[in-house]
Design brief:
By secondary structure, the protein is mainly alpha-helical. 39% of the residues lie in helices and 9% in strands. The longest helix is centred in the N-terminal third of the chain and has 29 residues.
Length: 556
């Protein structure tokens, strides 16, 4: 059971053992004092949030449409929203409904800070062990020191990652050191909280990113794989480097993106980590089996997996989901090496849908969002909803590196990674007995398909595959600029990323850093438009946190 407090976050408390006989004679104290490495490792298991930012991110993005708004034929429906706050998020309004839900902005905030609190408790004890050189009164062995360093690395990565997610959701995009120093950040928690009613300062966005980077570098210097039974459930070497690439992409430090994205492959050819899921669809017994395989540790393309409690999939069939233009621009639309007539060639056996070309229920890529239910009582039909998300993958990391190489002037290197991503989705086994027309990617296809102006070859008028970039306005740089030469390739990167991360919420982060304009049609007549650098790029911090005294995000 998770308790809700009016504080920003909570000090970590663990359940300890005490004698029942003297229960009434002592002041209750439920803390366990960490004494050895096993306890530190066990506490870090809870250092990963089980709340998902996917619903807030997707509902805010251009991946989702309102079925109650008239489509191009004037058809509209009368579906209800799964949660009342879905309507507020879709209209980019401040959320004050259903704030106790795990998928709400409040759930993201509380989940991230609870994870950070666990990391802080571990970091505090690690520093004590390092200072004394002893554990439980015994001098640390060489292996103890190595294991302690790995624990330290994971704890700092956890703290960096969760602050990064908070900044991505609740702050404006990073805008370079000068402008970011004028924008609100988020409270950066570095200590175990022991006060009853602490007061916090948001600081600046630049300070937030500086703190994230400091933790990130400590983590990268210490993380290891050898002490984990299942490394892919932790910040391991591959996922830590993939996270670093994602972080520096937001800062437009492209040389570091290439460095860390390459390090994530640990010297292996990315082709050896190919995603074999795409041509295995006919082999799965059902969607549960397919989703479990897609999010399994056996797949080499999965660098890190997160287990979340989320009802995101249950929006499918309700008012807001991936349909209409959002669907055509992502998992059921054309691409540079495939046509729409080939019926979702790069996702064919991996997409579940209902209805017509513009179905009322939409489609889903079940690998990214399928619900895996844990029964606590099968007879009663009760249990826990799990959604395992592939948080870092080789496929997304390829696209990090491709984007960075474009701005570094290495178009051939960028194309090589785009070619590899496309090749992994060819589904050659499925194409042998079908009319699928997906081909190997060529540069000429990119230059033709992503022409910003009217292009009849795309056959997607108005769907929004091709977007107007404002990246130089969002994050000005003296070194890097978007040019006409690299723009078609960057369009390809953002399109492939939109497909790769469908339903995961990361499209919203891309919208912010690229400076995309988004329009949401809602209900019969309402139209909401999010312009470049609109203050609503920053989701409002939870109402209960504002009530506790923290500065809200500005609004026009």
């Amino acid at each position: 059971m998770k308790l809700r407090y009016k504080l920003l976050f909570i000090a970590v408390t663990l359940v300890g053992l005490s004698s029942c006989s003297d229960f009434l004679e002592t002041i209750p104290d439920t803390r366990v004092y960490l004494q050895n490495l096993d306890q530190l490792e066990q506490l870090l298991v809870s250092g990963y949030t089980q709340n998902s930012y996917a619903p807030v991110g997707e509902l805010s993005s251009d991946n989702v449409d309102d079925a109650n708004s008239p489509d191009s034929q004037g058809m509209r429906y009368n579906y209800s929203s799964y949660h009342r706050y879905d309507e507020q998020i879709y209209a980019w309004q401040d959320v004050d409904l259903d704030i106790s839900d795990e998928d709400s902005p409040s759930g993201i905030w509380n989940g991230c800070y609870q994870a950070i609190a666990h990391a802080n408790a571990v970091i505090e004890k690690v520093e004590e062990f390092e200072a004394s050189g002893e554990i439980e009164g015994h001098e640390m062995t060489t292996r103890d020191k190595a294991r302690l360093a790995a624990i330290k690395g994971e704890a700092h990565m956890i703290r960096a990652y969760h602050h990064y997610i908070l900044a991505q959701v609740f702050c404006m995009p990073y805008r370079g050191p000068q402008i970011s120093a004028t924008l609100p950040g988020i409270p950066y928690a570095k200590e175990v909280e022991t006060r009853l009613d602490p007061k916090y300062d948001r600081g600046t966005l630049e300070e937030t990113y500086q703190n994230i980077e400091a933790d990130l570098l400590i983590g990268l210097a210490n993380v290891a794989d050898e002490f984990y039974e299942v490394p892919k459930y932790h910040f391991n070497i591959a996922s830590s480097n993939a996270f670093a690439a994602r972080f520096y992409l937001a800062k437009r430090e492209y040389d570091k993106v290439v460095q860390y994205a390459t390090a994530a492959f640990k010297g292996n050819d990315p082709a050896t980590m190919r995603n074999d899921f795409w041509d295995m669809g006919e082999e799965f017994y059902d969607f549960d089996e397919g989703a479990r395989y897609y999010t399994s540790v056996e797949r080499p393309g999965n660098f890190m997996l997160f287990d979340t409690y989320s009802t995101w999939l249950r929006r499918w069939g309700y008012r807001f989901w991936s349909s209409r233009d959002g669907l055509v621009a992502s998992i059921q639309g054309p691409g540079p090496s495939w046509s729409r007539e080939s019926s979702m060639p790069c996702m064919y056996y991996c997409v579940l849908g209902a209805g017509t070309t513009h179905p009322e229920y939409g489609y889903i890529f079940y690998g990214n969002c399928w619900e895996q239910f844990e029964y606590t009582d099968k007879i009663a039909g009760i249990g826990y909803v799990h959604m395992v998300r592939p948080e870092f993958t080789s496929q997304e990391t390829l696209l990090f590196r491709a984007e960075a190489n474009l701005f570094l002037g290495n178009i051939d290197a960028a194309f090589a990674d785009l070619y590899q991503w496309n090749h992994e989705h060819l589904m050659q086994g499925a194409m042998e007995n079908s009319n699928r027309t997906m081909t190997e990617l060529e540069k000429e296809q990119i230059l033709s398909f992503y022409n910003y102006y009217d292009n009849p070859k795309r056959k997607d008028p108005g769907s929004g595959i091709v977007k107007k970039f404002h990246i130089d306005e969002v994050c000005p740089s003296d070194k890097y600029h978007l040019t006409n030469e690299i723009e078609p390739y960057l369009q390809c990167v953002q399109h492939f990323r939109r497909i790769q991360t469908a339903h995961l919420g990361q499209r919203w982060f891309d919208i912010k850093r690229y400076g995309f304009t988004v329009t949401h049609k809602m209900g019969k007549d309402d139209v909401y438009t999010l312009e470049v650098l609109d203050p609503r790029y920053a989701i409002q911090i939870p109402a209960e946190v504002i009530g506790a005294g923290l500065e809200p995000n500005p609004r026009n």
